[in-house]
Specification:
The protein has 650 residues and is α+β, with helices and mostly antiparallel strands. Helix content is 19%, strand content 28%. The protein folds into four domains: 21-117, Alpha-Beta Plaits (2-Layer Sandwich), CATH 3.30.70; 134-441 and 452-468, Rossmann fold, CATH 3.40.50; 476-560, Immunoglobulin-like (Sandwich), CATH 2.60.40.3080; 563-650, Immunoglobulin-like, CATH 2.60.40. The protein is built from twelve helices and 30 strands. Helix 9 (312-322) links the parallel strand 11 (284-287) and strand 12. Helix 7 (226-235) packs parallel to helix 10, helix 8 runs parallel beside helix 9 and helix 11 (428-438) packs across helix 12. It is elongated and about 105 Å long.
Length: 650
């Protein structure tokens, strides 16, 4: 049999009685009644809202397949249309009639006809040849951990796999996935409709829909328990027994994997599932599937094809990310092999896909976890999570131990969902960038860990710092405006740590005129308005920031010219932690300002300050805490003018 080529098209394979499922690829979308300017005819409002929020324009891949093309295929005798992909502009059909395939091939709008799989098996929950044979599920031999002090969620057995990522940090702040939607693509979700582990998502209506794309059915409660195991790592909510990583999220459940066999058509089903996830407005795709070896070796993906952009499923996964979703996929379980099969599977190889490898709860790599990089040399896996000894639910809803990257993927997918919930203003790329930067090997990635074990606390603060700086509008952390002011002062800051922060408005003598108190988390952005200042006399004032770890002040001027009576002044005087020297330059050139104590010892020096005549200059002298109270002397020298001023530290 001729090997299958992956690129812009498939090489046609002659149909036989064995191969009665086929993919028809079209040349274009000519004559479609849909338009890019009106996406409401093919996308849900939630999907449109996501595109609008993140400035993602609809493109030709979003347009549905031309209806007359589908009608022409349906009109061919002995042909059943299974489903279709608008992204790939292709349709999957079933027929054993070679004449029907020849007629379809003769249509002028058909690009290729490819035979890809035999008839789907029905009523078979077994996995005789599928990828899941590599994974194991074992009974637990240890008791549930005691409730961890300080956490709001009683995780029970799942604490360790959440704690390795500091996931409880997000949960304790109320981020449990509320308002987020996750699509889980797998081979079946057997028992999820009765399983106690999923009581919460059932009772609260968190399963928004389900679809079996392999059999064109709506029920996913069957055919395999693998998807149920994976879903439990995210959605289980049995406090004291097991709690998943995003138990308050909404879910769409999709069967795209035929667990009874391994054929190329499953990649088509996966892309169709990803498209549906996009069209209904999902935020995250969690997929614990991977493809590289098939029942028919002619379909196999050698390592050279696992380059991040070549195979059908990888193209589809990259497109899903381009539509604004975060796509996470298990890296694969071939790590113990010595040949090129040990490298990551598809679509984990994707340029825009987050490939998830496996570690145990101690952070050691699992031997079965597939290696990186992809064949283009890109870092893979991207990150790792607990996939060796992962706590998942069995069919009765009880915790068991699972081994496989299938389980590391949903474990971290849920936490990334919670992180995105905390920062919905950022797009998928920004969220993943923060996750990777938070990982323990970010500065030294390798072929097993990739960037390493993400830290949700660190990722949270990376995003929060950027958000605060964006709100602040610059690189500084503290400001007070306008300067000079009249009736009000607008102060803003980024908190240096968690705890109480105070803002004071003081006059030049250090007298407190107004204040405000804030309870802050680290990196919080806060604003405060000091108002009704019109009756204050002209002069120098200060806005002071004071926390347990930082004390800083900004000087402002009100009203009349500061230098009416003299061209050089020091404020506040007396001072506490800092003072400012103000002067109006008397010439062009350079100035030197030196600070001495009462015994003539040099305390601080500001030399070679570039000045221009009539320019106004402000120099801050922060004072070290060890400096004693008493009198200090400022000496100013610009080469022509020399002045000495006394200042007193209280």
């Amino acid at each position: 049999m001729v090997a299958v080529l992956f690129g812009s098209c498939f090489l046609c394979i002659c149909a036989t009685a064995q191969y009665n499922r086929h993919i028809i690829e079209f040349k274009d979308k000519a004559g479609t009644p849909h338009t890019l300017s009106n996406p409401s005819t093919y996308l849900s409002q939630k999907a449109i809202d996501r595109r609008t929020k993140y400035a993602i324009a609809a493109d030709s891949t979003d347009l549905p397949i031309t209806p007359r093309y589908l009608d022409s295929i349906r009109s061919v005798a002995n042909v059943t249309v299974l489903n279709w992909s608008k992204w790939m502009n292709q349709v999957a059909i079933q027929t054993s009639d070679a004449a029907a395939l020849s007629r379809i091939q003769s249509f002028p709008f058909v690009k290729t006809v490819s035979s890809v799989a035999p008839r789907v098996r029905t009523g078979d929950n077994s996995d005789p040849q599928g990828k899941f044979r590599i994974e194991t599920i074992e009974a637990l031999t240890t008791a549930s951990p005691a409730r961890v002090s300080g956490t709001l969620v009683n995780y029970g057995q799942t604490f360790n796999q959440i704690h390795i990522h500091n996931g409880e940090f997000l949960h304790d702040r109320g981020f449990l996935g509320q308002g987020m939607t996750i699509a889980v693509l797998d081979g079946g979700f057997s028992s999820y409709k009765t399983n106690p582990a999923f009581d919460s998502i059932r009772l609260n209506g968190q399963v928004l829909g389900e679809r079996d794309f392999v059999r064109n059915a709506t029920n996913t409660d069957g055919f395999s328990g693998h998807g149920m195991n994976c879903l439990s790592a995210i959605a289980a909510n049995r406090p004291g027994t097991m709690v998943g990583t995003a138990p308050k999220s909404n879910f769409w459940l999709f069967i795209t994997e035929d667990v009874a066999s391994e054929y190329l058509i499953e990649e088509h089903f996966w892309v169709v599932g990803a498209e549906h996830a996009d069209s209904v407005g999902c935020d995250i795709i969690s997929s614990s599937l991977g493809y590289q070896d098939f029942d028919d070796p002619s379909f196999d993906h050698p390592y050279s094809q696992r380059d991040g952009k070549t195979t059908m499923i990888t193209k589809g996964a990259n497109l899903a990310a381009r539509k604004g979703m975060i796509v996470l996929n298990s890296a694969g379980n071939y790590g113990t092999l010595a040949d090129q099969r040990r490298f990551i599977s598809c679509p984990a190889d994707g340029d825009s896909v987050v490939a998830v490898g496996a570690v145990n709860t101690s952070g050691s790599i699992a031997g079965f976890s597939s290696w990186g990089p992809n064949s283009a040399g890109n870092v893979k896996p991207n990150i790792v999570s607990v996939g060796q000894g992962t706590i998942i639910a069995n069919g009765a809803g009880n915790p068991v131990s699972g081994n496989g990257t299938s389980f590391s993927n949903p474990n971290i997918a849920g936490l990334i969902t919670c992180l995105w919930q905390a920062f919905p203003e950022y797009n998928n790329r920004k969220i993943i960038d923060a996750v990777q930067k938070s990982a323990h090997r970010y500065n030294n990635p390798d072929e097993r860990f990739g960037y390493g074990i993400p830290d949700m606390r660190k990722a949270f603060y990376l995003l929060k710092s950027e958000k605060s700086q964006t709100q602040f509008g610059g690189t500084r952390w503290f400001r007070a405006t306008p300067n000079p002011f009249d009736n009000q002062i607008s102060a803003a800051f980024i908190a240096d740590n968690s705890g109480e922060v105070k803002l004071y408005l003081k006059n030049a003598a250090g007298t407190k005129l107004d204040s405000a108190v804030f309870n802050c988390d680290s990196l919080d952005y806060k604003e405060h308005l000091f108002d009704n200042l019109g009756n204050l006399p002209g002069g120098i004032y200060f806005v002071q920031y004071k926390s347990a770890g930082k004390d800083s002040a900004i000087n402002l001027r009100k009203g009349a010219d500061l230098f009416t009576s003299d061209w050089i002044k020091a404020f506040p005087n007396p001072f506490d932690d800092a003072f400012y020297l103000y002067f109006k330059a008397q010439k062009d050139g350079a100035a030197h300002v030196l600070l001495y104590d009462s015994r003539g010892r040099l305390v601080s020096a500001k030399r070679n300050i570039g000045i221009q005549k009539d320019g106004i200059y402000s120099i801050e002298f922060p004072v070290a805490p060890k400096l004693n109270s008493g009198t200090y002397i400022i000496r100013f020298n610009d080469g022509t003018h020399r002045r000495s001023l006394k200042v007193v530290r209280q």
